[in-house]
Design a protein that fits this description.
The complex is a heterotrimer of chains A (285), B (333) and C (392). With 285 residues, chain A is mainly alpha-helical. Helices cover 73% and strands 3% of the residues of chain A. Chain A has a two-stranded antiparallel sheet. In chain A, helix 1 crosses helix 9 and helix 9 packs parallel to helix 11. With 333 residues, chain B is mainly α. Chain C is an alpha/beta fold. Chain C has two domains: 193 residues, Rossmann fold, CATH 3.40.50; 160 residues, Response regulator (Rossmann fold). In chain C, 44% of the residues lie in helices and 23% in strands. In chain C, strand 7, helix 6 and strand 8 form a beta-alpha-beta unit. Chain C is globular. Classes of the chains: A mainly alpha (285), B mainly alpha (333), C alpha/beta (392).
Chain lengths: 285, 333, 392
């Protein structure tokens, strides 16, 4: 039973890393980016290609996936996303759906439709048995990495100048600009960071969630739930939302396998009815 | 005040008059039955998609509600009609009515969620509801057939006279008739004070409320109507193909219908139908070359369209539908 | 007679000849509508069957019973609505004499009504739920059924000291078939069974396998669709189930020849029951495997491929028997009772149910010549589909 709790937390950690970029993007520019999952998928495929075709060790592929996707994020933001900022939500939604479709079909064409399998290094395979609770080595690894990331992000968000500028821009972009904060440059950086994190999450998630061309569509709802429930103005909000989601999903499938698959949707709808502005949102004027 | 009322009434009456282009459109829709007898299966799909897009236009174009889960009602209608037929009542019109009632009720039940909350919440809720329904259909195999689909649907002949044939003749005329009738109702509704109030809410709901229009009620009403229209489209799917699969609740259905509507342009009722024709034609042509990778081309089309193409297509359509007839009328008088 | 009259006569004569010629040409062709998932999550099935069909025609020419075979390949992407529409179009517009393929149960069922209405034989080369052949009197199957493969597994388990089994199956027709037929046979023999079902889309095995681990069974019975086996195996090992001494048993889909190499050594020791292994020791199979690999970049044929290969055999033998008559009822009558030696072993099309009757082999996954193979060690001869047999 505790194993399931542990599994759920590890799963939630990966969800957090995947979704936090989306959360900040949406909070900052009020832009609904449904294609966020495509960046995650890209990170996953970078890892697969590096490992299978170039023999790069798994650990090294992780920062490479992060950097690679962040670079792609910078380019795409400049070329494709920037013209979309002023448009209405419907246009933004359709635009990002178009990008997802292209990414899915592109991945299918280039990499094939089957699930990608990677071989983890030996020290990450297998389990520990601590007091009767089985702890998977890989899940522990993921938990540690994502935990460190979460702490750094929270620290960066609340204790650095960059973080405070970012928070100011999220709260009120116009006033922030008036104070001399370069909001556009901030956004490009944040978008790159968020995409890079998504890519890293995608790479970490191959073992846990699988990787195939339909990944962005399958997990889109998960990211959106994390962001809606967790709110877009903090790092801790999405963190707890992701934890909640991860544990609920895994535990649901364990305890009630027949309906485990849609526990999270029900959870989300209930949460949204009770708190339409998200579980952790601060009041917005 | 009464002068204003008179002006509003006059403009509504004018809007209700039939333009030449509209009449031509429907006559052409009927004529293709004889012009393209080998493509009736495809034409049937276009008619059904047009009805589905029309239902989305009611909430998106006229009330400004962005929904990522409209396929929920399509699926509800399809399974409702399919199950009714499977368990004994095979008359298509009864099935159609039943499906519309079921999905309308679902829309009514869901409307409180839709009405409150901001754009993002609404997107999430609509998406979530559609996904929930998809999972229910998937898991409740004893009712829906699960992943294998709903089997054993036998539909009686329409009006006892026209049975559903393999070529799609009855199917197309049936779908076209349903589309036309429902379109007439929608047209009348939108060119009425009710329709005007919806547009007011879409443009500025705070101001509309201040003017005495109750936004929540009106939105709930239009959402229910739109849901029942989508349910009708679903019933058509179940009845004309005599098979319902989980795909009818899939996310891509909701995404596709939004694309269809924005191709044609929301807000004037014909957008969905024009979009459906363009979309299906594109899909059929591209899938002949690349059945799976057509998703790529549709995605590319979407991206380019949103970035650039909108003004081109919509400008063209508006020209034909409104400016030309006005000019012709101007010349006559 | 004037020049004009001559001219007109000539034109008339030419056009009559042309009409007769084209009609004759049309009559000389028998089209087969091959509907397969060539893209999407089940694309591996489509690829195998397509390759097998091409191989058969390359080896045997394409004229049978005086008719030239023309294959019209359509991709349904694994979507049942698409399958139905394609089947309808093939029958109405292309006037096919056969519908063939059908990579999954929902796809085969979607086309059943079309086959019945149009009176066109539907040759199911891949789908495996027992009730498929009952959906239309024009369906003939050359693949297998899950109960056919799963019941012998129960017998073997009972004989080999396995008392408690935990079953994990995918929640759709074949999975439910596998679970029911195995569990019923196993429980009837005195064993205990605990079961879970995993959804077809988005399978996530971790929580289900955790449950399995905690149940501490003697063996884990698993069925997942062809192509998903590798994911499952990884999770099985990750949970430590192999080290806990839990045997992996089930129908052979989880150690599908196509993906066996990709699964890796974790698959060694799995005991499965199935109707085809690429390592089957017969001259016919060795020739088949060699020719298949030669034509397809050393891709191994799997049970899907052999289903396609034998499906073509059934179609062409039927055409020969009816002397080129493409009437649906005549073709079905010709197919009933047909029997021949396939690369998998001897097979027969049951005259009553139009379903396939074939040997089922119990195999162990081992390494042979540096590659992983399913090595057969017991044969259960000419097994009929038990679900339909029980209904008699």
């Amino acid at each position: 039973m505790l194993t399931i709790l542990f599994d759920g937390i590890a799963y939630g950690m990966v969800l957090f890393v995947l979704a936090c970029g989306l959360s900040v993007t949406m909070g900052l520019m009020n832009f609904v980016n449904l294609a966020h999952g495509a960046f995650a998928m890209l990170g996953g495929y970078i890892t697969v290609i590096l490992m299978q075709r170039l023999g790069v060790p798994f650990l090294l592929t992780l920062p490479l996936a992060f950097i690679g996707v962040a670079l792609v994020g910078v380019v795409l933001e400049r070329v494709l996303y920037r013209p979309m900022y002023g448009k209405n939500h419907l246009d933004q939604v359709m635009f990002t759906i178009g990008i997802v479709f292209m990414a899915v079909a592109g991945a299918d064409y280039l990499m094939g439709s089957s699930q990608q399998i990677i071989k983890l290094p030996a020290w990450l395979q297998g389990r520990f048995n601590i007091g009767g609770v089985g702890i998977g080595k890989y899940r522990l690894f993921v938990l540690v990495i994502c935990g460190i990331l979460a702490f750094s992000l929270q620290w960066g968000f609340t204790k650095t100048r960059f973080g405070s500028r970012l928070r100011a821009s999220v709260d009120d972009a116009r006033v922030a600009r008036g104070l001399g904060i370069p909001v556009n440059r901030l956004f490009a950086l944040t978008f790159a960071l968020g995409s890079g994190l998504a890519g890293l999450g995608g790479a970490l998630g191959i073992e846990l969630m699988g990787l195939d061309p339909s990944f962005p569509l399958k997990f889109m709802i998960y990211f959106l739930v994390v962001v809606t429930v967790g709110g877009t103005s903090t790092i801790t909000g999405p963190f707890f939302a992701a934890m909640l989601l991860g544990v609920a999903d895994v535990a649901g499938k364990y305890f009630v396998p027949e309906i485990g698959a849609f526990i999270i949707y029900v959870l989300m709808v209930i949460l949204l009815i009770v708190r339409p502005d998200g579980l952790f949102a601060r009041g917005r004027a | 005040m009464s002068m204003l009322e008179d002006r509003v009434r006059a403009s509504l009456l004018a809007a209700r008059r039939w333009h030449g282009a509209e009449i031509a459109f429907w006559l052409l829709a009927l004529a293709v039955f004889w012009l393209f007898p080998r493509n009736l299966l495809l034409l049937n799909e276009i008619a059904i998609l047009a009805l589905f897009a029309l239902s989305l236009d009611l909430i998106l174009g006229f009330a400004g509600i962005v929904s990522l889960g409209h396929a929920a009602f399509l699926g509800l209608g399809a399974y409702a009609a399919g199950l009714l037929a499977k368990h004994g009542i095979g008359d298509p019109l009864v099935g159609l009515a039943f499906a519309m009632v079921v999905s309308g009720l679902a829309g009514l039940l869901a409307s409180p969620l839709i009405v409150k909350g901001n754009d993002l919440t609404r997107l999430m809720v609509t998406l979530g509801v559609a996904l929930i329904l998809h999972e229910i259909a998937n898991s409740w195999g004893s009712l829906t057939g699960g992943a294998d689909g709903l089997q054993g649907i036998a539909i009686n002949p329409v009006l006892g006279l026209f049975s559903f044939d393999l070529f799609g003749k009855t199917a197309y005329l049936y779908s076209l008739s349903v589309l036309f009738v429902l379109f007439l109702v929608a047209r009348r509704m939108m060119n009425s004070p009710f329709g005007l109030s919806l547009r007011a809410i879409r443009d500025n709901s705070l101001r509309a409320a201040a003017s005495g229009v109750p936004p929540s009620q009106r939105l709930a009403l239009i959402y229910t109507i739109a849901a029942s229209y989508a349910g009708a489209a679903g019933a058509l799917i179940a009845q004309t193909s005599q098979f319902v699969s989980l795909d009818v609740l899939d996310f891509h259905r909701s995404a596709d219908v939004m694309l269809v509507l924005i191709i044609g342009g929301p807000g004037y009722l014909y957008g969905g139908m024009i979009g459906a024709i363009v979309f299906k034609f594109l899909q059929d042509t591209i899938s002949a070359f690349t059945p799976q990778y057509w998703m790529f081309w549709i995605g590319l089309f979407l991206v380019l369209f949103v970035l650039r193409g909108r003004t081109l297509i919509h400008g063209g359509v508006k020209l034909i539908m409104f400016r030309l007839p006005a000019r012709v009328r101007g010349k006559r008088s | 007679m004037t020049l004009r009259r001559h001219f007109l006569k000539g034109v008339l004569g030419l056009s009559v000849a042309a009409a007769m010629g084209s009609a004759a040409y049309a009559q000389d062709v028998a089209k087969i509508g091959l509907i397969l998932p060539m893209t999407g999550p089940f694309a591996s099935t489509g690829k195998q069957i397509d390759a097998a069909v091409k191989l058969f025609l390359a080896q045997n020419g394409n004229t049978f019973g005086g008719k030239k075979i023309e294959i019209i390949l359509k991709d349904d992407t694994g979507n049942a609505d698409t399958t139905r529409r394609l089947a309808q179009e093939l029958v109405v517009n292309d006037r096919v004499a056969f519908l063939a393929g059908f990579g999954l149960t929902p796809l085969a069922l979607a086309a059943a009504q079309v086959a019945t209405q149009a009176k066109v034989p539907e040759i199911v080369m891949a789908a495996a739920t027992a009730t498929i052949t009952e959906a239309s009197p024009y369906i003939v199957r050359t693949s297998f059924t899950l109960p056919q493969a799963s019941e012998p597994m129960a017998d073997w388990a009972l004989k080999n000291n396995i008392k408690k089994v935990f079953t994990v199956v995918t929640d759709y027709g074949p999975g439910i078939d596998a679970e029911n037929s195995f569990a019923n046979k196993f429980k009837a023999g005195g064993g205990t069974v605990e079961s879970v079902r995993v959804p077809l889309r988005n399978p996530d095995f971790a929580p289900f396998l955790q449950r399995a681990a905690e149940a501490k069974p003697d063996a884990l019975f698993v069925f997942v669709p062809s192509g998903i086996g590798a994911q499952f195996m990884k999770q099985f090992v990750e949970r430590g189930l192999d080290k806990a001494g839990v045997k992996l048993i089930g129908p052979g889909d989880v150690v599908d020849d196509d993906i066996l190499a990709g699964i890796g050594d974790v698959a060694i020791g799995a005991i499965t029951t199935h109707h085809y292994s690429a390592a089957h020791d017969s001259a016919a199979n060795k020739a088949f495997v060699a020719a298949f690999r030669a034509a397809n970049g050393s891709m191994r044929p799997n049970f899907m491929g052999v289903g396609g290969y034998d499906g073509m055999r059934v179609i062409t033998e039927a055409l020969k028997k009816t002397n080129g008559n493409t009437d649906g009822d005549a073709l079905i009558a010709a197919m009933k009772g047909m029997s021949f030696e396939s690369p998998r072993g001897p097979i027969q099309i049951d005259a009553d149910t139009r379903d396939i009757v074939q040997n089922i082999y119990v195999r162990k996954t081992e390494k042979k010549d540096g590659e992983l193979y399913n090595i057969e060690f017991t044969t259960i001869p000419m097994v009929k589909d038990p679900v339909k047999a029980a209904k008699k």
